Amino acid sequence: MNEIDSHINIPLAVVELTKKYDRFVALAPATFSLLSGEIAILSGPNGSGKTTLLSCISGLVRPSEGTVTVGGFDLDRDEVEARRRLVYVPDVPRFYLELTAWEHLRFIALANQADGNFEERAEALLRTFGLWESRNLFPHHFSRGMRLKLGLVMAFIRPFSVLLLDEPTSALDEEGMEILAAEIRRMREQGTAVLLSTHSPDFGDALADRRLLIRQGVLEVQ
Ligand SMILES: Nc1ncnc2c1ncn2[C@@H]1O[C@H](COP(=O)(O)OP(=O)(O)OP(=O)(O)O)[C@@H](O)[C@H]1O
């Protein structure tokens, strides 16, 4: 394997990623990479920088310095290609007021050219997460847990090689956590790299191939 191939085979590479708000350092230079099929659990106290790290990697928040490379594509220079390979589920997913749950899925699938077999895949995912009966409702009428589940289904309806999840367990019941853990294990088998923040030690222990710990913006890779 040459140098370029080995680089492309690393789904996620983060180098010296830094975020400052004025003089406050929310994320000190952070460097790590994830291999294909690797699950990394990100933990740390409230306000330590977990969401900041995930949102900088996802491209939602612009870092002050550093690079993010997804499947060999630089998030800054090749944004479209990098974003095609990466999906981010925030702890509080946002929805369009005008669209039902089903319409959200169709919209995401179309936008990502992932409409092959759409109806079958959407039904299977909605059933898995217990949202099939609610598919024609508007997500702003959903409970917090249902919203998170729809956020997950919206992410999983299209292809990706890197999955970022911000505290998915905070809104899920016991059964929801088991369903999510099973989905994540299935993705690991398919080679997806997963970075997941959680305050739940049990959930993290059940899935972790690697641990990332963040304290006061300083990332420690274990
Ligand atoms: N837009 C912003 N402007 C200024 N400071 C911010 C901004 N966003 C985040 N911060 C600060 O950055 C720090 C890290 O916040 P972050 O949301 O990343 O923490 P977290 O580890 O995800 O916390 P929690 O576990 O409570 O969700 C906090 O001190 C927060 O106040």
TrEMBL record:
<protein>
    <submittedName>
        <fullName>ABC-2 type transport system ATP-binding protein</fullName>
    </submittedName>
</protein>
<dbReference type="Pfam" id="PF00005">
    <property type="entry name" value="ABC_tran"/>
</dbReference>
<dbReference type="InterPro" id="IPR027417">
    <property type="entry name" value="P-loop_NTPase"/>
</dbReference>
<keyword id="KW-0813">Transport</keyword>
<dbReference type="InterPro" id="IPR003593">
    <property type="entry name" value="AAA+_ATPase"/>
</dbReference>
<dbReference type="GO" id="GO:0016887">
    <property type="term" value="F:ATP hydrolysis activity"/>
</dbReference>
<keyword id="KW-0547">Nucleotide-binding</keyword>
<feature type="domain" description="ABC transporter">
    <location>
        <begin position="12"/>
        <end position="221"/>
    </location>
</feature>
<dbReference type="InterPro" id="IPR003439">
    <property type="entry name" value="ABC_transporter-like_ATP-bd"/>
</dbReference>
<dbReference type="InterPro" id="IPR051782">
    <property type="entry name" value="ABC_Transporter_VariousFunc"/>
</dbReference>
<dbReference type="GO" id="GO:0005524">
    <property type="term" value="F:ATP binding"/>
</dbReference>
<keyword id="KW-0067">ATP-binding</keyword>
